[in-house]
Amino acid sequence: MTPLVSILIPSYNAAKWIAQTLDSALSQTWENTEIIVIDDGSHDDSATIVSRYTDHGVRYITQTNRGASAARNHAFSLARGDFIQFLDADDLLSPHKIERQLALLATRAPGTLATCRWGRFENDPNAARFVDHDVFSDFTPIGWLLHCTTGARMMHPAAWLIPRAVAEKAGPWDETLSLNDDGEYFARVVLASSGLAFAPEEDAASYYRSGLSGSLSQRRSASAAASLYRSAELVSTHLLATENSPSVRRALADYWRHLCYELYPDAPSLSHDAERLSATYGHSTVSPPLGARARLLARVVGWRLARRLAMRRR
User: Fold this and answer.
1) How far is CA 261 from the centre of its chain?
2) Is CATH 3.90.550.10 the classification given to domain 5-213?
3) Cα separation of 302 and 103, whole Å?
4) What percent of the chain has pLDDT over 90?
5) Helix, strand, coil: what percent of the chain each, to 5?
6) Which of the 8 DSSP states describes residue 129?
């Protein structure tokens, strides 16, 4: 049988982008797909726009506002696919993305995840920047997580293609998280898998729309910072439950050191907590993200004050 792929799209006030996203989903050269849009309580023109696509088989379901993770869980509960493609309502897929990944997975062990090239763009996907080449490779589950925690790297959520059995084994998205809910979710998915297979073709890609004002990834509210910290705690727990080895602990020391820098100065208390937790896993050599002048100043006044002073000069 030809595998069915479920393309699951959580949407909230995405009227500006949802048509382009749906066009990319409908343009897949792999034709056996279903597209499910879960509208998470939008109050813009999303319904009017998506209604134009229902004749093309797009399912449009509304729910009261509960967050993107709840919308993804709702979509998954309705999905019939053998494979799962998550796609945010402002992101895009290249036409051959799913076809290339399925061809690759047909040659790999059951339970393997497929990834692909991904790039950031603002308005024009043709100008996307494919910069995180370190993740464009095959990995073992542990190898992937160590690579990401050590270097603060990521895979764009839409770059994955997930066998349904792996998604079921990993469990649902954590609806208590907002920021970095994808990092926590895909950590579980990776650990539930047989490994990662990278589709190297130029025409297999996903596109991450970045730099949007008001986007969740740009927010640094107290609740967003708390979610980021909590997601890191969960990722650490998942990883250590699988392998509590010196290499894992070294990676977690770096992971929490990166988080310490990311949380400052918006969440100073959590930043200090992350720094202390990093030290419990071992010594980290990860340096604070400072310019040359600020690094010199940090030797005298510490990296936190040096960072605040550097921010004031901007």
Assistant:
1) 20
2) yes
3) 52
4) 92
5) 50, 15, 35
6) B
Q: Which two tokens stand for residue 63?
A: 């729910």
Give me 57's structure tokens. 């088989």
User: What type of residue is 170?
Assistant: A
Residue extents of the structural domains in the chain: 5-213, 217-312
pTM for the model stands at 0.95
d(CA 11, CA 188): 23
Q: Which residue has the tokens 């006030």?
A: 13
Residues 6+ apart with CB under 8 A from 40: 10, 11, 12, 63, 65, 66, 67, 68, 70, 71
| Helix/strand number for the chain, H first, E second | 12, 9
User: The tokens of 38 are what?
Assistant: 């879960």
Q: Which two tokens stand for residue 292?
A: 């040359």
pLDDT in tens, 263-305: 999 999 999 999 999 999 999 999 999 999 999 999 999 999 9
pLDDT in tens, 67-118: 999 999 999 999 999 999 999 999 999 999 999 999 999 999 999 999 999 9
Q: Are 135 and 115 in contact (CB under 8 A)?
A: yes
Name 226's Cβ contacts closer than 8 Å, sequence gap at least 6: 267, 270
CA angle 293, 295, 297 (to 5 degrees): 70
The burial class, CB within 10 Å (0-12 / 13-18 / 19+), for 95 is: middle
Structure tokens at 37: 């849009």
